[in-house]
Amino acid sequence: MATEKDQDFFSHKHPSASQVMEEVRELWGMALPITAMNCLVFVRAAVSVVFLGRLGSLELAGGALSIGFTNITGYSVMVGLASGLEPVCSQAYGNKNWDLLTRSLQRMVLILILAALPISMLWLNLERIMVFAGQDKAITGMAATYCLYSLPDLLTNTLLQPLRVFLRSQKVTKPQMYCSLVAVAFHVPLNLVLVRMMGLGVPGVAVASVLTNLNMVVLMAGYVWWGKGMTMMRWTAGIGEVCGGLGPLLKLAVPSCLGICLEWWWYEIVTIMAGYLPNPTLAVAATGILIQTTSMMYTVPMALAGCVSARVGNELGAGKPYKAKLAAMVALGCAFVIGIINVTWTVILRQRWAGLFTQDKLVKLLVASVMPIMGLCELGNCPQTTGCGILRGTARPAVGARINLGSFYFVGTPVAVGLAFWLKIGFAGLWFGLLSAQVACVVSILYVVLVKTDWEAEALKAKMLTGVEMVECNEKDDEENKGLLKNENYDDHSNKDEFI
Fold it and tell me: Is residue 254 part of a domain?
């Protein structure tokens, strides 16, 4: 007999307190390890910025510009495309469709390998692009060096990002945390050896980051291959079978990528716009610290968004629309609390925070003047990031992409440019632009999730998504070759053991 935990509840009944608390435990049981992992990833990035800052203001500015450029052109694309796995893997896991689960991982790795080729060309031409855009030559020269030595990281991310989504969709979060902990534990020693002892400077900082990510990939891939039950998964699909499903997966991956990139790009574009202010070295260095700070604060809502995407997808795949709705509502409530906490600490610590990254007094003063604005941005960023995770869990990433496009580029950009350059407010004007974008975004996201979502219809769509599998490219049957999808009978799945 199914327990209360396994049962859905009717739409006319409100969830009981015990159901709400059970969902809170379920959500944070997944989110806390992912948050810890994200914090460890932030520590890795922050350590790199600290070592750059200790090398000098020019090195810090160049490193910040390179980090912004690689985020815009590379890492955001990798993360965004990999997020297309979230609705497929989470709903497939809820539906116990193991074949779709494993094949989708293989397809995403192939997609990311193909995407890495044009990205690498952009990274190799960073200096030309930035000089053409009018950036300071000394800063761009330093940035180009950092970017060149970061190239191998593209290959590691073709495996790292899909593996994270693949495991999280199956509620496997603690192993990810432990793998990240082991890898990051060696990050500071790597920097000390490469930067201080060997005197490699900026290249040493970049190589240390690459090696740390490589360690994460090796550990996580080892867990997937040798972890409990993982070897039972079917990894032997032919190239035709894998290629045959790229189209349908791309239909989810591309809008997921756009939704994440449009927001991520705007944060990093702030770094580029700061380079056009009267004192570019000072402004870009301060922006680098603030971007790292927002990345730190982003660790919790990003974890919450990923986990609520998995929770919503799992429940929809299992045919439980109102448990999916409960997961969404609980996550949004938690997101607002997190936003309030971020506003509070940014105001209290605004005078001291920049001292963790640099000893330059002017940079510290500039950071302190903007931190309260940045804190207010997080009050909107937390629920809107969580809302985007809910949309991905319901396989509607295109909705989030349209909202981010309108909010950040038709609201935030005009406000930022107008305040910073036309009204001469300067550096603070850029961050007021971000605040306006976050307000527009959170209002739109909440309207879609709270008002426009039909959870029963989403459960039916999930049944359709997980009841199909991509056909092989070399299928001989002409009727099956007419489309990319064919219906499969997965009744035998109930007899298969879960892998995790």
Answer: yes
